[in-house]
């Protein structure tokens, strides 16, 4: 878990540092941050053994609504 | 910027995936031959693994170890436990990807080897194209014996089977695990060669192979073990085994001795072709067999004429037909479908009543160097 | 959107590699278990179905030249509904990408490197593919063009040599063929891989005039390849063995030996699989990144590609093992893909007609 958080922080630092070089806008930074955070949340759920299993959710939806 | 990117890439290379599955060749115990026996009372498996010894195999003079292979044996109640157990006795990592042959004891074969087949098929370290032999001598004697001419016994057995392999159409000798798997749902048996150790004590010192008599403490392959649905049900003698391969498995060569005009003539039948035809579907099957003959030894006291050659051909045809009919009778008596009647259109319930006729034709193509034998007046 | 131009041959190769992708490793085992010796027939009707669906997507694309499916959705359905549909497609591309990644890492983990964790394979291959995506579709297409011959020959030459083990008796398994029942039981073969090619609607704007021919012939040729490989598998391994194995083609390569010297050719196949998966994954990754960029009007692909590695690598780990993966595919895949491959394109065509969007409008003004 600590490794995940450390990687998350370093990834952001690396990303923002590279983005500073090119003319960036708020939208791009927001997208970068949003996507990484979503990924980190999914990873966190896997590490904590409570995976936010989208496949199971889709399977449930299909078997209940079809 | 470029240097830092390079630095990042190089750092990432350190995470390369060789870390977990690293296999350095110097640390591997390369198994060339495996043997397995099952104790019928306790159900325990006795596994023997013959590991190649690289320093013993090297031909450099002055190498300290003379043994080309070392055999380790283990006992446990389930196949999968051996991989871990080997770590307690072998100083190197157990590596079976180079395994060439497997020997199964007769008593294990008679109990059925489906569990072994499942294990070999599931395990990604094993391949199902390993050749199998059944041993009627004690397995520990065979696994603890050195072999002459080819110092690695696994290779010795593999080379021996390769001689037969050449005579099969498509170069496939069907004595592998995958042939047993293929025949699991079929009614035609699979015949696996039986190896027999000629001596009493194992040739367990490498000095033994310094002796000139290679047959005395050596291995012979003669009879065949009949497997139906992965269980050994009986034995076939050598000639019946070869005939079985000819009729079912596209074996193309046969050496026979026939009597012509009161003398022996040894002929080799080459390029044997077998065709099945149902005269009456389900009730009358006909085999058409054709062979090209080559004379190896002719002890007749007469000149080789065209008529004489035709006599040899006719005699060969009659002999082979008689042998095939004997095989048919034996297979029906014992209930082993050695002619493959059921799998080629026959009826499961009435295959024993199916009439089978053999029609053999042959052509003498090669006669040897002499046209007339030497005679003493 | 980048200014890229794909030639007909490049599009053909991309379609071919995309469809063959992971299907030739994963599908044969299940198909032969479900359809026995008629497994090869399943691929025939599957690729015909793929061609028909391809025609539908090409028709939709022809009415909106130069636009990808997310752009079409926004134009036809408006900003909010179109945006929602685009998000669905983004999710779709991410899902296929993660399943492809998972298939590859499962394969490597089971057969080649059993001690390496799955996440390592995922992240490694995604990092490479993210780089390819940032370089653009032309780079991916050129790599595919370069590799296609290198992928085809080392597969088919050894495979053809295995004909020496062909046994016609393998086709004599006692099994009564019920076409409709088999069709229903093997619906997943229609979904994976043929319905996944709707992803190419993101790439259509880059293709030149030979789009229709290249795309449809790519589907057809891939279908023929897959049919032949299943036929070979049945003929060489037999129904009994092939239906019990997870990766029958890999086992065929593993057991190949000629001249007592050349053996262990499964390493050749492993490299083949790795390269094919790299290309398919790059393509899917590109579609996902492009869809997000088009939706949010972002020009820089790297901003989206690298963070997406986090999401795809995590998603790829949701299935606990390959059995769960295969079960999910058999039960839900066709129904799920039908939404993206049939329902949404059909709805878009109908709505476009009704609202007179794209080339539907031109026809009206002409009359």
List keywords for this structure.
heterotrimer; B: 377 residues; alpha/beta; GMP Synthetase, Chain A, domain 3; 2 domains; nine-stranded mixed β-sheet; four-stranded mixed β-sheet; 10 helices; 27% helix; C: 367 residues; mainly alpha; Amino acid/polyamine transporter I; two-stranded antiparallel ribbon; 75% helix; 1% strand; globular
What features would you describe in this structure?
The complex is a heterotrimer of chains A (66), B (377) and C (367). Chain A is an all-alpha fold and 66 residues long. Chain A has helices spanning 2-21, 26-47, 54-65. Chain A has one domain (2-65). The termini of chain A are far apart. In chain A, 14% of the residues are buried. Chain B is α/β, with parallel strands linked by helices. In chain B, the strands form two sheets. In chain B, strands 1, 2, 3, 4, 5, 6, 7, 8 and 9 form a nine-stranded mixed sheet that branches. In chain B, strands 10-11-12-13 form a four-stranded mixed sheet. The mean pLDDT of chain B is 86. Chain C has 367 residues and is an all-alpha fold. Chain C has one domain: Up-down Bundle (Amino acid/polyamine transporter I), CATH 1.20.1740. Helices cover 75% and strands 1% of the residues of chain C. Chain C contains 16 helices and two strands. Chain C has a two-stranded antiparallel sheet. The longest helix of chain C is centred in the first third of the chain and has 34 residues, at 79-112. Classes of the chains: A mainly alpha (66), B alpha/beta (377), C mainly alpha (367). Chains in contact: A-C, B-C. Chains A and C meet through helix 1, helix 2 and helix 3 of A and helix 14 and helix 15 of C.
């Amino acid at each position: 878990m600590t490794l995940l958080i450390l990687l998350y922080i370093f990834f952001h630092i690396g990303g923002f540092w590279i983005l500073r070089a090119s003319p960036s806008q708020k939208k791009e930074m927001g997208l970068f941050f949003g996507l990484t955070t979503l990924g980190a949340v999914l990873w966190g759920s896997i590490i904590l053994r409570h995976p936010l299993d989208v496949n199971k959710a889709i399977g449930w939806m299909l078997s209940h609504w079809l | 910027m470029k240097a830092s990117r390079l630095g990042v890439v190089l750092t990432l290379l350190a995470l390369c995936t060789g870390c977990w599955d690293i296999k350095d060749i110097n640390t591997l115990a390369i198994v060339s031959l495996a043997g397995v026996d099952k104790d019928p009372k306790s159900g325990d498996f006795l596994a023997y693994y013959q590991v190649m010894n690289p320093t013993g195999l090297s031909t450099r003079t002055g190498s300290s170890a003379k043994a080309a292979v070392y055999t380790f044996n283990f006992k446990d109640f389930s196949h999968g436990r051996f991989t871990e157990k080997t770590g307690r006795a072998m100083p190197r990592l157990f590596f079976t990807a180079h395994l060439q042959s497997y020997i199964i004891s007769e008593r294990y074969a008679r109990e059925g080897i489906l569990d072994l087949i499942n294990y070999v098929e599931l395990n990604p370290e094993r391949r199902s194209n390993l050749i199998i032999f059944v041993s009627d001598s004690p397995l520990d004697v065979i696994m603890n014996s050195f072999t002459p001419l080819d110092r690695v016994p696994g290779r010795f057995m593999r080379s021996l089977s390769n001689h037969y392999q050449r005579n099969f159409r498509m170069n496939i000798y069907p004595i592998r695990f995958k042939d047993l798997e293929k025949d699991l749902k079929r009614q035609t048996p699979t015949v696996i060669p039986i190896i027999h150790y000629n001596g009493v004590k194992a040739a367990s010192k490498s000095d033994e192979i310094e002796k000139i008599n290679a047959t005395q403490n050596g291995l012979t392959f003669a009879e065949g073990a009949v497997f139906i649905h992965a269980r050994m049900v009986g034995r076939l003698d050598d000639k019946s085994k070869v005939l079985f391969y000819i009729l079912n498995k596209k074996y193309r060569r046969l050496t026979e001795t026939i009597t012509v005009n009161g003398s022996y003539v040894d002929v080799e039948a080459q390029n044997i072709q077998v065709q099945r035809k149902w005269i009456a579907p389900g009730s009358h099957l006909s085999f058409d067999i054709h062979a090209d003959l080559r004379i190896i030894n002719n002890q007749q006291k007469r000149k080789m004429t065209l008529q004489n050659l035709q006599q040899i051909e006719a005699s060969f045809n009659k002999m082979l037909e008689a042998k095939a009919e004997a095989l048919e009778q034996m297979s029906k008596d014992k209930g082993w479908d050695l002619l493959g009647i059921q799998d080629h259109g026959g009826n499961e319930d009435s295959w024993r009543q199916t009439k089978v006729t053999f029609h053999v034709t042959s052509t003498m193509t090669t006669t040897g160097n002499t046209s007339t034998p030497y005679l003493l007046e | 959107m980048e200014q890229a131009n794909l030639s007909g041959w490049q599009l053909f190769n991309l379609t071919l590699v995309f469809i063959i992708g992971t299907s030739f490793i994963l599908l044969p085992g299940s198909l032969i278990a479900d359809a026995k010796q008629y497994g090869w027939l399943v691929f025939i009707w599957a690729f015909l179905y793929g061609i028909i669906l391809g025609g539908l997507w090409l028709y939709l694309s022809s009415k909106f030249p130069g636009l990808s499916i997310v752009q079409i959705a926004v134009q036809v359905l408006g900003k909010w509904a179109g945006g929602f549909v685009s998000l669905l497609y983004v999710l779709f591309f991410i899902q296929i990408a993660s399943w492809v990644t998972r298939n590859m890492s499962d394969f490597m983990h089971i057969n080649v490197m059993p001690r390496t964790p799955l996440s390592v394979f995922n992240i490694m291959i995604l990092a490479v593919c993210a780089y390819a995506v940032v370089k653009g579709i032309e780079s991916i297409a050129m790599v595919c063009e370069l590799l296609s011959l290198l992928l085809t020959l080392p597969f088919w030459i050894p495979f053809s040599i295995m004909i020496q083990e062909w046994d016609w008796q393998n086709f004599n398994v006692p099994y009564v063929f019920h076409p409709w029942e088999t069709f229903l039981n093997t619906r997943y073969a229609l979904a994976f891989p043929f319905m996944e090619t709707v992803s190419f609607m993101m790439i259509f704007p880059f293709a030149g005039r030979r789009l229709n021919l290249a795309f449809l012939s790519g589907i057809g040729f891939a279908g023929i390849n897959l049919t032949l490989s299943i036929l070979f598998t049945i003929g060489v391994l037999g129904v009994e063995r092939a239906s019990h194995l997870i990766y029958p083609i890999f086992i065929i390569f593993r057991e190949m030996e000629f001249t007592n010297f050349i053996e262990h050719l499964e390493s050749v196949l492993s490299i083949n699989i790795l390269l094919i998966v790299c290309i398919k994954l790059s393509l899917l990754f590109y579609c996902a990144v492009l869809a997000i960029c088009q939706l949010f009007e972002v020009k820089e692909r790297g901003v989206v590609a690298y963070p997406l590695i986090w999401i795809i690598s995590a998603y790829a780990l949701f299935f606990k093992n390959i059995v769960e993966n295969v079960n999910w595919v058999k039960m839900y895949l066709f129904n799920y893909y039908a939404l993206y491959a049939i329902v949404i394109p059909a709805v878009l065509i109908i709505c476009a007609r009704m609202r007179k969007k794209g080339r539907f409008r031109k026809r009206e003004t002409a009359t």
